[in-house]
Amino acid sequence: MSAQDAVLVVGAGPAGLSAAATVAAMGKKAVIVEKEDVLGGAPIISGYAKLVPSGEWAKDAIGRMVS
After folding, report:
1. CB 62: neighbour CB atoms within 10 A?
2. Rounded mean pLDDT of the chain?
3. pTM over 0.90
4. 6: helix, coil or strand?
5. Count of CA atoms in the C-beta half-sphere (13 A) of 2
6. Are the CB atoms for 47 and 25 separated by under 8 Å?
């Protein structure tokens, strides 16, 4: 795989994880760069309980994205 086949995603919060999943679904390699020690962004780092507007538990929704 060449560098042209890879996409750099900066940030592993919900938007970055979603972007990486979309890139992977297109058959490309996503390389994620994150400054924190954990993936998931503010909802995980700050310990959000539920997401708005879905009301889903943040750790569950974002945990699926991290997986």
Report:
1. 23
2. 88
3. no
4. strand
5. 1
6. no
Three-state helix/strand/coil letters over 19-60? HHHHHHHCCCEEEEECCCCCCCCHHHHCCCCECCCCCCEHHH
The CA dihedral of 34, 21, 67, 52, to the nearest 10 degrees, is 80
CB 63 within 8 A of CB 47: no
- Please give the span between the terminal C-alpha atoms of the chain, in angstroms, as a whole number: 23
1 pLDDT band (50/70/90 cuts)?
low
Structure tokens at 11: 């940030």
Q: At residue 67, what is the residue type?
A: S
Pairwise CA distance, residues 40 & 63, whole Å: 8
